[in-house]
Design a protein that fits this description.
The protein is α+β, with helices and mostly antiparallel strands. Helices cover 34% and strands 24% of the residues. Strands 7, 8, 9, 11, 15, 16, 18 and 19 form an 8-stranded mixed sheet that branches. Strand 1 (17-20) and strand 2 (23-26) form a beta hairpin. The radius of gyration is 21 Å and the shape is globular. The two termini are 13 Å apart. The mean pLDDT is 93.
């Protein structure tokens, strides 16, 4: 959301060197000022699609950032974004490098969480339409919340944003184990609401606890295939046809406004610190500067907003299942596997040139994929690796993978985040009819609820890359490996 690009005119011809079946390099010599090469993980079809817009050019542009280490990375779901490609990863030195809002994006902590149930498709299918209707009633979609039992003042919002998911659990909106199964345990400690504008706060007050629109969705799914039974069991998936729920949304207008506010600040900062950039959309600030730390504290507020947003939605999903199935929650399940961020910057330590470096890791349209043994993984998963959740486009499969050591070595512990757009929303609306999309999905047994037929046209599956292909590249490269494939039974859109 907020980064819609409909590029006109031929894209630049970017030279590529093939490293292996799934790895391509943009040589550092391509452009004066590149500090590192660009690395792209893609198969032949995907690289062809990336070459049709400015994705590769943006990968090369990111390689100009001060303090960047190893390479500018574009993952297999990469496509053109604001400054960074969506599907872009870059790590810059904490002291000598920069932090760039374009490396996080407008929908800060757009992310996804997966819930497992103790039910099979056979259990939910007779009540599927009722379940879908109940969730659609209980979970606010579209621009703002219609719930009268969850309203917040600006003071409330600041408290929620500072304390994150633990505060919501303390207030009865969730279970204690939800906290451990969120990235950052559902709260970045750096969040400081004083660094957030009144405009952002006013946008956020009516939108916290809402699904939103665009590519955000809520799905009732089933496990289609298990690839790694041992890891699947550890994550709560025991058999094929098991029912699951996936929630995909972010920080809504709150995060969008924070990004807009700080991009304007960073555009001035570039001149103040005399930073040379090939694209003004890469506006950034030195990592040690006051402006960088202000942005990081505001970004952390939006990160926490999104974690809370998904927590509230999960709470109402649990309520909906109980209302319709009339079963105790212990029988239903709806346990949180994990909640991962897709648009975020983190301060992390990574191995560079044989030593540990403290870095700003920008993940934009990228999922953290930490390996077995990493201390930031929940203790129950630590011997297996971090759950990686890759949602598909509407009506297609989604994937559960697991992080690897190779991801730490080659992509700063990151992998792909989803299907990645091929058509702009405007182009999709010209090509598809919303009610036609609905009928096609329902002909396949997938129930659809949406606030708008226009959204169904914008989000039609052919507007996106093939998520199975994206997941296969991640698996075959080894930056996240297959655990299970999920397919939709019902789709709820804003």
């Amino acid at each position: 959301m907020g980064e819609e690009r409909e590029y006109r005119g031929p894209p630049p011809k970017v030279p590529l060197e093939r490293v292996d079946s799934y790895t391509w390099r943009i040589p550092q010599s391509y452009k004066p000022g590149m500090r590192v090469p660009g690395i792209i993980f893609a198969d032949d079809e995907i690289i062809g699609k990336m070459s049709s817009d400015r994705t590769l050019e943006q990968c090369a542009n990111v390689a100009h950032l001060l303090g960047i280490y190893k390479h500018s990375i574009t993952l297999p779901d990469g496509h053109e974004g604001y400054g960074f490609p969506i599907g872009g990863v870059a790590a810059t030195d904490y002291h000598e490098g920069v932090i760039s809002p374009g490396g996080v994006g407008y929908d800060i902590n757009c992310g996804v969480r997966l819930l497992t149930t103790n039910l099979s498709e056979k259990d939910v299918r007779p009540k599927l339409r009722e379940l879908t209707d109940a969730i659609f009633r209980n979970v606010p979609c579209g621009l703002g919340s219609r719930r009268k039992d969850f309203t917040v003042t600006q003071h409330d919002l600041d408290l929620i944003i500072t304390a994150g998911v633990p505060r919501m659990v303390d207030q009865g909106f969730g279970w204690p184990e939800d906290i451990e199964h969120c990235e950052e345990e559902g709260r970045m400690n750096e969040a400081d609401p004083s660094r957030v504008s009144p405009t952002a706060k006013s946008r956020g007050m009516s939108q916290i606890g809402t699904l939103g629109s665009g590519n955000h969705f809520l799905e009732i799914q089933k496990v289609d295939k298990i690839y790694d039974p041992k890891v699947a069991r550890a994550f709560g998936i025991s058999n094929e046809n098991q029912a699951t729920v996936m929630i995909h949304c972010g920080s809504r207008g709150y995060g969008h406004q924070i990004c807009s506010d700080y991009l304007r600040i960073m555009e001035r900062v570039v001149h103040k610190y005399k930073i040379a950039l090939p694209d003004r959309e890469l506006a950034c600030a030195p990592g040690t500067s006051e402006e960088a730390h202000d942005y990081y504290k505001a970004m952390a507020c939006a990160v926490n907003f999104a974690f809370v947003n998904r927590q509230m939605i999960a709470h109402w999903v649990r309520q909906s299942f109980q209302q319709i199935l009339r079963e105790p929650v212990e029988k239903i399940g709806l346990n949180l596997v994990y909640d991962v961020a897709h648009n975020i910057a983190k301060i992390e330590e990574h191995s560079v040139d044989g030593g540990l470096k403290r870095v700003w890791v920008h993940r934009k349209g990228a999922t953290r994929a930490f390996p077995p043994g990493h201390q930031e993984i929940p203790s129950s998963y630590r011997s297996y690796g971090q759950p990686v959740i890759v949602p598909g486009s509407m009506g297609t499969s989604s994937w559960l993978l697991v992080g690897t050591k190779k991801a730490m070595d080659v992509s700063f512990g990151s992998t792909a985040h989803g299907a990645g757009r091929m058509l702009s929303r405007a182009a999709a609306k010209r090509r598809f009819w919303g009610n036609g999309v609905r009928k096609e999905l329902e002909s396949r047994g997938i129930i659809v609820r949406s606030e708008s037929a226009v959204v169904l046209a914008e989000e039609a599956d052919p507007a996106y890359k093939d998520v199975d292909r994206i997941a296969k590249v991640s698996n075959d490269v080894g930056i996240a490996t297959f655990v299970a494939r999920l397919v939709p039974l019902a789709v709820i859109k804003g």
